[in-house]
Amino acid sequence: MFDFRYHALSLVAVFLALGLGIVLGATIGDSLVSEANRDIRSSLREEVVDAREAAREAREGSERRDELIETALPGLTEDLLAGDRVAVVSLGELPDQIESSSREAIEEAGGSVDSVSELPLPEALEGVIEPDSAKVRGRRLGRAIVRGGRPFRRLEREDPDVFRGEGKGASEAVLYREPPGEDRSAERTELERAFAAGLIEGVEIEVTILVGVERGSTEPSQVSFFDDRGLSSIDTIDTPAGRIALALVLDGAPQARYGLKDSAERPIPEP
Asked: 234, 213 in Cβ contact below 8 A?
């Protein structure tokens, strides 16, 4: 005969067992999770410490490298550009660091900066609506900038904020290009490309060497722009190695991509 009391006791026993299981499982689970969290935190702390140490060692190594290059710089570039006059030309706003690094490299090698021209593209293209006209304007400006003399003096009088320097005439030139904005229309992009092509063409008519430069932090890099136009480039002009490379390129080193970025073919030209 079926005993309801026995059945009730059995159910109570089952529920007690389940309750004990849940309590024990939660306790053990919390313990395991806590232990796992401690292990993870410890591992992450070790990885952070290791990463900081690696970064410190890399920074110290980079500083020692730059000190060594800085020490060797005068001997590597002394008098390479003696008597040379170099024009610095910028398509867009010219960062102070680009101008100062270029000037330092040129003067350390015995040369001098003939002129600095900073061409803000919207203003430089004012009134131009055809790519052919933009190219012609760029070519005329490029020739006037590096030829110096009366053409440059006239430009300087008209806009002294854009054109400055002695303007006696340059034998070599350094080109910087400000990374274009992404909000340009297709028409504006075409005009700027035509203007840049004309400017480079005009400069190259008057000088023996034209080299493109940028900083290590320039983003996006303009190395491909220079490369597409057959120009040597230096992607870290703001470093001692970049200044050495600039002096060597202006002295006639082979056309190549120099610098420390992934796109570079070698750090500096062979002296």
From this structure: yes
